[in-house]
Automatic annotation (TrEMBL), chains A, B:
Its main location: cytoplasm. InterPro entries: CMP_dCMP_dom, Cytidine_deaminase-like. GO terms for biological process: nucleobase-containing small molecule metabolic process; pyrimidine-containing compound metabolic process. Keywords: Cytoplasm, Hydrolase, Metal-binding, Zinc. This is Cytosine deaminase. One of its GO terms (molecular function) is diaminohydroxyphosphoribosylaminopyrimidine deaminase activity. The keyword Cytoplasm applies. Homodimer.
Amino acid sequence: MTRLDEYRNWLAAAVEQARAGEAAGGIPIGAALVGERGDIMGRGHNRRVQDGDPTAHAEITAFRAAGRHRGYGATTMVTTLSPCWFCSGLVRQFGIGRLVIGEARNFYGGHEWLAECGVEVILLDDAECVRMMADFIERSPRLWYEDVGS
Amino acid sequence: MTRLDEYRNWLAAAVEQARAGEAAGGIPIGAALVGERGDIMGRGHNRRVQDGDPTAHAEITAFRAAGRHRGYGATTMVTTLSPCWFCSGLVRQFGIGRLVIGEARNFYGGHEWLAECGVEVILLDDAECVRMMADFIERSPRLWYEDVGS
């Protein structure tokens, strides 16, 4: 398996999360925190609607699900959508070493800033992720703009 | 009451949170999200220890406690300590208009970056906040460095 195949497998886990959130009436963004040996340490999806929690972005819920650790340099944050400033700040503060992104067409967050800060950033430009998010924004624009604070 | 008095009152609410967290064996950082009319919309403290939750920084728990809203431009985030990149990212992403900080001696986070992004930043350099954090870091260095991902 090539490294790119591995990234695509991890993204599939994030997409599965996004779809689960969507099926529950939520915002279809999913994420996973992956450990050094490719193990999924935590996974999650946006839960603004489900929990009434404006901090429950996918990357945050995945990171939270992984529990307490020291040293994230060898971990990878995998997310279906380019991380907003909030989630980018999480990656920077905790020194997460790598970021794998499904797409950055529907939302362009802080991933370039993270790359400048030394994070390895892989943008997969995945067609399913693009479609999933575009469909959602078309269907629920108010909810989407609330989620990103605009 | 001058505006500075008002900021100091809000900071007192954040310090009260920090002290409550400390009394429960947690990290003594507190925060409050304050509304346009000076109403406290949400308050919280660091809960890494209490909840085993690495995302439970004070600013995040205060923001979460405030629930779902649209438009944070007229709100103020009040925190006992300069916000880390994670919490600074929250302020930027949601367009929180003002940031009142107890101190930035024990930890120098992203508040200058936020000022450059147009956030009104007030650094109170409060002696109690400085002492509270310095005492904690001296007592529990491992826990402190875990909390900021270093």
